[in-house]
Design brief:
Length: about 160
Amino acid sequence: MKIPLSIACVLIGLATVCSAGEADDDVFELERWCASAGGTVLLPQGGGEVSRRFAGGEVRFGYYLDEFWLAEFATSRLENLTGFSADILWHWWGYERLDPFFTFGASALVDTEIGPSFGTGTFWHLDDHWSLRFDFAATFGLEHSPEMLYAFSAGVRRTF
């Protein structure tokens, strides 16, 4: 089952419409949530079942723990593979138009064991809510192939 990128864009659009009203509950702070959609390219190294590059779409949802830390969950559909990841994103410098960050977490492809991942990236803020997002991540295989998996991603992000 392939999930088209257009569905991801529709989900972000619906979330944008829902965020137009103010939250009545102080515990649920809508402005701490963000969502992004984009494309990704995987470059596996070390042979094995995943032996060529894959391109596809991804959707990410995140929650700001504080001003510098973001917990993020992602899913991606890449040709004949589905991937999942959970990351912590650390903003290490400013919140101006250019906003670089580091990530660390874990990634997995369905039917292929993958392990810890580390990466870097940046946001280019267009306004208070919309940003362009660029990422690079390296995922280390633990006991199975691929031994190393590189991911390049680009997309658009909405902070509520």
